[in-house]
Amino acid sequence: MTTTTTPLETTELESKVRSYSRSWPVSFTRAQGSTLTAEDGRDYIDFFAGAGALNYGHNHPELKKVLLDHILEDRVVHGLDMFTDVRRQFLETFRSSILEPRGLDYTVAFPGPGGANAVEAALKLARKVTGRESIVNFTNAFHGMTLGALSVTGNSLKRGGAGVPLVHATPMPYDDYFDQVVPDFMYLERLLTDAGSGLNKPAAVIVEAVQGEGGINAARAEWLRGLSELCKKHEILLILDDIQMGCGRTGGFFSFEEAGIEPDMVTLSKSISGYGLPMALTLIKPELDIWEPGEHNGTFRGPGPAFATATKAIELFWSDDELERSTGTKGAFIESRFNQLAARFEDHQLVVKGRGLARGLEMPSGELAGKVSSLAFERGLLVETSGPSDEVIKLLPALTIPDDQLTAGLDIIDEAVAEVLSA
Amino acid sequence: MTTTTTPLETTELESKVRSYSRSWPVSFTRAQGSTLTAEDGRDYIDFFAGAGALNYGHNHPELKKVLLDHILEDRVVHGLDMFTDVRRQFLETFRSSILEPRGLDYTVAFPGPGGANAVEAALKLARKVTGRESIVNFTNAFHGMTLGALSVTGNSLKRGGAGVPLVHATPMPYDDYFDQVVPDFMYLERLLTDAGSGLNKPAAVIVEAVQGEGGINAARAEWLRGLSELCKKHEILLILDDIQMGCGRTGGFFSFEEAGIEPDMVTLSKSISGYGLPMALTLIKPELDIWEPGEHNGTFRGPGPAFATATKAIELFWSDDELERSTGTKGAFIESRFNQLAARFEDHQLVVKGRGLARGLEMPSGELAGKVSSLAFERGLLVETSGPSDEVIKLLPALTIPDDQLTAGLDIIDEAVAEVLSA
Amino acid sequence: MTTTTTPLETTELESKVRSYSRSWPVSFTRAQGSTLTAEDGRDYIDFFAGAGALNYGHNHPELKKVLLDHILEDRVVHGLDMFTDVRRQFLETFRSSILEPRGLDYTVAFPGPGGANAVEAALKLARKVTGRESIVNFTNAFHGMTLGALSVTGNSLKRGGAGVPLVHATPMPYDDYFDQVVPDFMYLERLLTDAGSGLNKPAAVIVEAVQGEGGINAARAEWLRGLSELCKKHEILLILDDIQMGCGRTGGFFSFEEAGIEPDMVTLSKSISGYGLPMALTLIKPELDIWEPGEHNGTFRGPGPAFATATKAIELFWSDDELERSTGTKGAFIESRFNQLAARFEDHQLVVKGRGLARGLEMPSGELAGKVSSLAFERGLLVETSGPSDEVIKLLPALTIPDDQLTAGLDIIDEAVAEVLSA
Amino acid sequence: MTTTTTPLETTELESKVRSYSRSWPVSFTRAQGSTLTAEDGRDYIDFFAGAGALNYGHNHPELKKVLLDHILEDRVVHGLDMFTDVRRQFLETFRSSILEPRGLDYTVAFPGPGGANAVEAALKLARKVTGRESIVNFTNAFHGMTLGALSVTGNSLKRGGAGVPLVHATPMPYDDYFDQVVPDFMYLERLLTDAGSGLNKPAAVIVEAVQGEGGINAARAEWLRGLSELCKKHEILLILDDIQMGCGRTGGFFSFEEAGIEPDMVTLSKSISGYGLPMALTLIKPELDIWEPGEHNGTFRGPGPAFATATKAIELFWSDDELERSTGTKGAFIESRFNQLAARFEDHQLVVKGRGLARGLEMPSGELAGKVSSLAFERGLLVETSGPSDEVIKLLPALTIPDDQLTAGLDIIDEAVAEVLSA
């Protein structure tokens, strides 16, 4: 196949809002594991993994088999919230292999196909349960682009896109926002206990255990525990948004396991289907599940193929602790490589960030980080940036990435960083 | 297959918000065309078609083949908004086979996987373009369950679920809201021209050409034209929500073709993939496409399998006018059968509603309509109700339903209506 | 006194927001009854009466005596909501001479010094009582300029000044908004009974019996009764804003007496003190008075001098029906003069509007009405315009205006209208 | 005089929202200087001064003379925003005696009769000027009870009274909110500079130099300067609410003089008339005065008597620095007495607070502070409490209070505190 049909022609058909195709101006055609192949046949190592939607890599062979069978056998593909065999199998497997081993008790809502639906559903239910409107979110949070989810998201460009004032949310400092000068929750706790503070008492706090879009900011376990206790003390619901960091990204299935907390609601999406298919869950403590039938609904809440692959993915990856250990090992390897880089360029004060296989390298500026990403792309590596100024090189490789690809990708980053910082 | 694995056990795992599984308490396992098969082997005729997401029936063989090939060949399944070959093919086919033949010029945004994402994106852009916040929606509108979409939705149960006051929207009477006593748009036009009316000047009007959830209310073509002219005159954007009624449901690909209008934005989802896979589009007049890159984004905006089936569905069904004519014929057949029913039970003042293959039979009450739906289910037909009191028996059969199944289903409705009204 | 100290010099000290001093660019120094005297000694007939704040004319001699005594005797001038003798006397007199004779039972809140405070207090309490946020207001309503009051006000210039989207209010057509084509409340009632209408169920309806700022639109008694019944039926509170039309402006003390309704809350201000002193009341049906102590407060809620003059004004003017009858007579006289004018210039389709001594003459345009007002000023008459385009010549003379001044003022209007329409 | 006309009978006529009459259940009849006299003839020392509206005491003889003359001569009492001689005289005197000597340049808007009107006007204009909606306010702020002013007020009881979610405001820590652990503005500055913070960029910051209702919290001059610089740096308008602390309460005419800052807007009310008459100003930097004529208006914006007394009060008290020095001396005296009290009861950790003649003594609890206030009342002293738990004994005596009354009042407080803390 030639590149005569350049993607550029297509761009006129598509809205100016497109973004990734600007950073990586090639057209991809095939994908397997951690490799993406462009139309011109060139292979790229994928350190991006669908922004966390492909924790098990592209088109995993065993999931693919299940998916093909589902389609071949004319099983139900679209079922809204009707009962189907695959829906039940997913629910049973999720309970027996994910919730029960972790001592967690949640009912599962299917709020719609994407992460924003899961967040919207959680916010709605938190407000219904408490009778309050306000939500506390955190600096540099990302929870989605629909109006409710956007109101608790930090990014000012995205907030500006709302076209209406975003209200009902008050941002609080995330862990380490002030370089540990300030005691955790000092401000939030003071506002909550001061009857004259002017803070509308929140229905819920929504938090990510590791902020991906915000720049790979990993909250400490003790900070999460402190937050959980603060919420309990003030009868505020805790919503843990595990859309990007769940499904094993930080090691355990849930990113909050390490902290030993039990949030009131948990949102999951991205990698839950295991195959990059749209699917989302809102997990709800049973006593909070006070919804009327149909009070929240939607068209794509019964995705048969995604149920099938999601069930299989749990069986494959979460029957033992192999993946979790491997994630720890690979994460530590990246950290060690990044530490070496930081030491090598210590004048530039690179900051090594993250947990598990959510890893970041903070560059001195967004411009420099962008150059690293561009050079990496030229050398055959897909890696994006995040953070308020896009100053963090953000690594979200598939958890299943082979060691040689991981090493090859990191070598490319080394070279790109070196080239950029030596310029 | 036995029913020992009853769905009832599963219900404890799932949130109380589930609804369809309450009306149809069996578990489905296979689907083909207009037939759904339960775990106990019983077949059901499907007059529901995934609430309009399955206009070409379940698991259409030719789409299935394309889907299998896509998966077998490890083509890109999840690609955010990166360029892919299937993305380009879809865009080109959509332009050449759908937009150009209809003389329409739109850029295409992929706003996320579901219809609510398409609506949220349209509302955001309308506000950005105009610098205004307010939206005019219509009585009994349904546009989705995320906070922005919900604020322009009519249903009070669903609105109540928001947990915050829904603002920035003012409902106006939909066509025929007052049994033609009142001139069209009298109230809206008066409010727009009166500087003291207290109506915040709207950024946009959002409308469905036929209201599905609202009770199969079909606006007349002249009403839609009048609305379009009113919007132009007052420099208000017109958003046509074609999520449920597009993709041929009313005959033409777009439900607004008949009226000869050209909305400023159009939302599509549900049947656009042709296979029940999550996918959504926001069509935007090029001069309004003023978004910054990434100002609206999301994880599931590059669904490879859905691009593949969507492209094939357009090729299969929209290369000629066969489907459109068949939809007209079948719709007329339903109308004629409903008219007979209404005549037979004229004391009960049944109202026959709809256009194309979106058809409704309004019963004297929601209770009676619910009984008809239940009896139909017992007799092997899936048909739901809609309308503010669920008083309308709502038929959304696949456009491809064979005549014998259509007749068989209508016979069941006849029997059920007769049983209910003769009781 | 010369005019060397022209007002123009002062204008630089004052914000550009000033308005009346633009229409009437002279500086006034003395006032008595219906005569205002400028610094250059020229007298003006006052058909404006402080926008309804001077129903008993400027500086009424008997009220003046009471006011002087209050001040001379060092009685309490500023008392917040402490008990004072004058506060008690006012409350007792208001009850015995105003409420009891009309069979009304209200508790009295002193919400602050101005009308907007009275409206804000009523809206807050209505929301607290019902637990709902939304308010229904009417086209061309005017209720004040603070954020809560402004949100239920119609004028687009004033609304635009808010700087935030004004929400929680939905405008409904006021009486005769569609020239009687449409049955009263057809739209509102339909929205309230349709569970899918998208109207947030309102806490309250707020209405003026005659809209002053809106263009002297007088609602029919049967319309007000219909509105009152509709509110009762749907358990929505009825707030009657009598700030401009109360205290006898339309004949009876309350503008709603004629309709025989009993609103849930009534707001009064403007002429309540009788002397143009800031004072306001929110009248509340006792069973709705569920406020916590201090839940609404403010600095100027115990204006001693205003209590004194208000009490005296009630004694003077509301012990018998003399004023009410005189208002009827004078109002009929204006109406008759306006009808003659309209007949004389029938090609121009002047519209005669109003009730009691709130009277309007609608000119073909705001420009023409403005010219009439300017010419009248040149001839020694103060008369303002109102309505959405300022197209209504608005007469609010003191209720106590002597017949000769009333006639002289009407003669000036005759001349001015003739000059403008003959040009 | 007997108490047969007990105030208790009157209470049934008045809304339950009344508050001061609950703390001080007697009816007052006369007032002079710092003495209030009840109907039973008993005199009370006034350490409350109309919550700061009577900085020059009750019914000051020279202001009284001016007021009587105004009324006797039938000068204009009610004039909306028409030009009047007294309006001009006030504006000229305010400019020449207040603004010019302090090197300040403001245009003056008369936003309505009370402080809340001044705040509402300032917020509206700040939003219009900047095109932004959000406001930063401070913990324990008090700015008024109308919807716009209430949204920037801290007290949760009062906020709860709104009945709608209060939005568009984000509370920031006031000076010394964390006992100086945290650098000033650390949080606000970080949020403003972080593009991902989630803080809607504010139109304005609104602040009191000393928080009266919030518990007599006096910001340090350097904190105010820092705030002013921060606002300038980020192009955010600074609104200084001087309603309670202006007109000499803290020494200088404006409470912010000491800090040497020049706010973009200043609100004044309470003591501006000098006689407890309703009057309010919004001072606006000329370049920000972009209002359209009439874009903000209201009925009571031309209070003739208040203009007269306000002008005289400026002449009397602000032609030299005598009052300012006296306020400093008296304030220091109170502080010294409070320090002695705190030393005497050091186990109870009383906190001495305030500046000028705004002074507070923080008791260990609101209950104890309330007992002190009650005992003081029994002993003939009116003194209220403030702060989030009403734990601060709040002294706002007239600036003109004679030394013997000041001492007598402080003796009563000593006794009351001793009785309460020794119990």
From TrEMBL, chains A, B, C, D:
SUPFAM superfamilies in the record: PLP-dependent transferases
Entry keyword rRNA-binding: no
EC number: 2.6.1.76
Swiss-Prot/TrEMBL keywords: Aminotransferase, Pyridoxal phosphate, Transferase
GO molecular function, one term: diaminobutyrate-2-oxoglutarate transaminase activity
Pfam families linked to this entry: Aminotran_3
Cofactor: pyridoxal 5'-phosphate
InterPro entries: Aminotrans_3, Aminotrans_3_PPA_site, Dat, Ectoine_EctB, PyrdxlP-dep_Trfase, PyrdxlP-dep_Trfase_major, PyrdxlP-dep_Trfase_small
Domain of life of the source: Bacteria
Pathway stated in the Swiss-Prot or TrEMBL entry: Amine and polyamine biosynthesis; ectoine biosynthesis; L-ectoine from L-aspartate 4-semialdehyde: step 1/3
ATP-binding found in the keyword field: no
One biological process term in Gene Ontology: ectoine biosynthetic process
Family, per entry: Belongs to the class-III pyridoxal-phosphate-dependent aminotransferase family.
Annotated NCBIfam families: dat, ectoine_ectB, PRK09264.1
Protein name, per record: Diaminobutyrate--2-oxoglutarate transaminase
Organism: Brachybacterium endophyticum
Lineage, highest ranks first: Bacteria, Bacillati, Actinomycetota, Actinomycetes, Micrococcales
